[in-house]
Amino acid sequence: MNEDAVLAVESLELEILRGRSRKVVRNVSFSVPRGRVTCLVGESGCGKSLTCLAILGLLPEAVRRTGGTITIDGERVNDLSPEHLQALRGGKAAMILQNPMSCFDPICTVKSHFLESLAAHGGNSGRLSPEVMPESDLARARRSLAEVGFDSPDDILDAYPFQLSGGMLQRVMVALALLSEIRLLLADEPTTDLDVVSQARILTLLDETRRRHGMGVLLVTHDIGVVARMADFVVVMHKGEVVEQGEVATLFAAPRHAYTRALLQAHLSLYGLAFGDEAVGTVSPEPCLAAATPGPVPEEVRIR
Amino acid sequence: MTLLRTLLSGRTTRLAFVGACTVLLVALFAPLLSSWDPDDIDLSQKLQAPTREHLLGTDHLGRDVLARLLHGARASLGSVAVIVAAILLLSLSVGSVAGYAGGMVDAFLMRLCDTFLTFPTFILAMFLIGILGAGMTNVILAIVCTHWAWYARIIRGLVLSLKTREHVLAARVAGTGQFRLVMRHILPGVLPQILVLATLDIGHMMLHVSGLSFLGLGVQPPTAEWGVMINDARQYIWTQPQLLFYPGLAIFVTVMAFNLLGDGLRDALDPVGETGGWGK
Amino acid sequence: MLRFVLRRIAVLLPILFLVSVAVFLVLRSAKGDPAMAYLRLSQIPPTEEALVEARHMLGLDRPLPVQYFTWLGKALRLDFGRSYVTGKPVLDEILYYLPATLLLTGVSLLLTLVVSVPLGVLAALYKDRIPDQLTRAFAFFGVSIPSFWLGFLLVYLFSVRLGWLPALGRGGVSHMILPAITLSLMSISINIRFFRASVLENLHHRFVLYARARGVPERRVVGRHIFRNSLIPIVTAVGMHLGELFGGSVVVENVFAWPGVGRYAVTSIFNRDYPVLQCFLLLMTGIFVLCNLGVDVLYAWLDPRIRFGGEEQP
Fold first, then answer.
1. Distance of alpha carbon A65 from alpha carbon A77, whole angstroms
2. pTM given for the model
3. Is C206 in Cβ contact with A116 (below 8 Å)?
């Protein structure tokens, strides 16, 4: 893959060890270019979440990587030592997960989570440019929270996770990810448990963040609408394999694989559209949204 | 019958079931199994070592130890059986009524349960026996009094959750009478879990019964009971320690069998749950 | 926090009232005539007039509710009457024996926590492997063994055969060892299972995954997130153990001739010394209730979700 990729996955193979071992992910290869969004899309159970976990070496006990290489920012991360892995996670690459409420320790405040993450990475990101003054941990946390749109970061910091909504916690996760100068952001189904307004909000936030910081984003989702909204590149997975991948415009206009077609068709039929309809000529899902929402499209939901 | 088969699917569960049944059979057929009368005092034969006549020797009053052990099963298991039956009857009634009726009835019955649950169980049992007098009947009464409330609360919870299930609502819409509703639709959902809990508790109750008997508050001499036998034998710990060993071993093995059985039943009903099991 | 405590106490009060009524009624139904017992104690010959006089003096001819409130008033002032046997105030007698029981129970509780927590963690971290299987087998035996039998087995081994430890009585540390082990084994076994389940539940929690994803060092993940969350249910379990320990102490005191309230109470049962019994029940229950309240408060303090009760998202 090209040198401009922050993430390059080549021929990844994952196996489940329980009972008869079987391959759950076969020969998966794709990349995430710097500053761009690659969407990994497929139905539940196709292996996309496992692929995402495998990138940071967070596979559950029963699953093992049996082949392939993973390169983050030019560095092979397959067989890193525990210390290197730990520095990588949250340092060079960060992850946000679905169902944010269950991801936070219920007996620790948000502040506690921030201080913990900061302590894990030396309190200061290793990539601060020399002109910037090193700030205290708390100040960094506040800055991060302000960046993701919280007006009073201190209120958030003092709260316990159960006191915040799912949408808010998802934004806190982004704030935690931004504590270091990450090159790669992995987002595993970030919109799944959220209401529509929060979904739009988090997607906009991810987009802005990407633009501002220039990291590559791997967005795992089963929602074609999210793909249409966010993706530069699309990787379609089905039953553990990549069936098609390419630029989002090409894919939407002329899907080659039957499964991709089926996915797109299923999504379009929600809006009463079909392939071949004039409205579905471009990438922009505005027609879809126009069909779904009577009246003007609200500001946050408008796309690039 | 298929329920029974699924419940007894594990190997250790089957073993425990066999063990528990063995003890039950011993209790039932004790007089047939031993050639000696457990109350037969013969001071000339006292404190004998095991011989062909007295397979496990004799106690301090010349009674055959084996005979007393076998008959002891009757006292222990018999009382626990009555206790469990009484507790189930009482707690099922109170728990179902409280859960089903709701409102003031529920509140009153639950306050009643809370009252009983305030006391540490063994101490309350002691108090009741102290007031009512020693003896097996009062031990049974005391243990029923101290344990029923815990079951009633659980049953109430189960009934509450079952009350809103689809099949119950469907029956109500169809106009089923309340009594029939409870008996036919709610209780069958409650029973399996309660039976598992009761089986798990049998061992615990046996320990209480024999513990109270050991203290002299339960079965009165000359009736054979394992706890009483241990109390009788304590003064001979220096000379005839085996007299202490056998009855305790009998309690230990029986309690283990029922605990194992209860564990197996619980795992069969709910294999995912790894939530402790004993103790309340 | 204070509101939580007050709320708990408020719920407790009606229950305590019902409890006192129940105890009073049971006491009144006891065999034996308190008037007779009083006369016997004071060594007054039990003539008809003396009985009537005694009954009047003891308030036994008043209506039942009045008797109840008199009794309650006395109980609240910690006046539980005099022992039928010794004639001395019952509370003094019981308080004389109470420290020994509290010592034994306290040490056993400590032993329970010290032994069961590490074993529970071990069993959870090595699930289904040798350490787990051994620990679970140990816990299984511990729950099934009658404490009085265990006590005598230990005495036989360590006193009779080996002569290492004393068989009875209270004295120095060596007198405490066998009774404490005997008393705590049941609680240790229950707690091992309980704690193991708690750790297992937390091992696979998503916040563990997320902490690792953020690059938090493994030591902190285990120490802070897994361990602390696993400990919280133990706090509530302590209440359950206390009930078990109070009951078990009666038997253990009997086995080892440990001079505590349990032993005294059993003797009183044989003597039909009802005032002692009444005080024993009320006192032990009172301690039990207070401990449970303390445990609930501690639990609320540890788990913010309980503390902040109904506060939902802003």
1. 12
2. 0.80
3. no
Chain B residues with CB under 8 Å of C31 CB are: 131, 133
Helix, strand, coil tally for chain B in percent (to 5): 75, 0, 25
Complex ipTM above 0.90? no
Q: Does A218 touch chain C (CB under 8 A)?
A: no
Instruction: Check contact B-A (3+ Cβ pairs < 8 Å).
Output: no
Residues in chain C, total: 314
User: Residue A258 above 60 pLDDT?
Assistant: yes
Q: Is the dihedral of CA C255, C261, C265, C268 positive or negative?
A: positive
Give the up-direction half-sphere exposure of residue C72: CA atoms within 13 A in the CB hemisphere: 16
- Residue with token string 């081994």: C157
Cβ <8 Å between C209 and A107: no
Q: How far is A303 from chain C (nearest CA, A)?
A: 29
Torsions phi, psi of A16, nearest 5?
-95, 135
pLDDT of residue C153: 92
B36-43: Cβ within 8 A, 24+ apart: B36/B63, B36/B64, B36/B66, B36/B67, B37/B64, B37/B67, B38/B63, B38/B64, B38/B67, B38/B68, B38/B70, B38/B71, B38/B72, B38/B224, B39/B63, B39/B222, B39/B223, B39/B224, B40/B64, B40/B67, B41/B222
pLDDT interval class at C47 (50, 70, 90)? confident
Confidence band for C180, pLDDT divided at 50, 70 and 90: very high
- Cα B141 to Cα B83: distance, rounded to the nearest angstrom: 8
Assigned token pair, C179? 């009774």
> What is residue B174's three-state secondary structure?
coil
Whether the bond between C304 and the residue before it is cis, its omega within 30 degrees of 0, is no
Coil, helix or strand for A267?
A: helix
- In eight-state DSSP terms, residue C46 is -
Q: Which of these ranges, A44-53, A278-287, B75-84, B87-96, has the smallest mean pLDDT?
A: A278-287
Disruptive mutation site among A80, A116, A218 for chain C (greatest number of C CBs within 10 Å): A116
C 193-222: CB under 8 A from A: 205-207, 209-218, 220
B131 touches chain C (CB under 8 A): yes
Residue C94 CB contacts under 8 Å (≥ 6 apart), including other chains? C261, C264, C276, C279, C280, C283
Q: pLDDT per residue over B9-65, tens digit each?
A: 677 778 888 888 888 888 888 777 777 777 777 777 777 777 777 777 887 888 888
What is each CA distance from C12 to C74, C126, C237, in whole angstroms? Answer: 21, 42, 19
Q: Report how far residue C26's alpha carbon sits from residue C16's, in angstroms, rounded to the nearest whole number.
A: 15
* Mean pLDDT value of segment C245-273: 91
Flag the least confident range among A58-62, A270-274, B30-34, B265-269. Answer: B30-34
* Of the listed ranges A91-105, A111-125, A200-214, the one predicted with least confidence: A111-125
Determine the residue type at A245.
Q
Where is C72: in which H helix or E strand? helix C64-76
Cβ–Cβ below 8 Å for C266 and B215: yes
Q: Tell me whether strands A5-16 and A63-72 are parallel, antiparallel or unpaired.
A: antiparallel
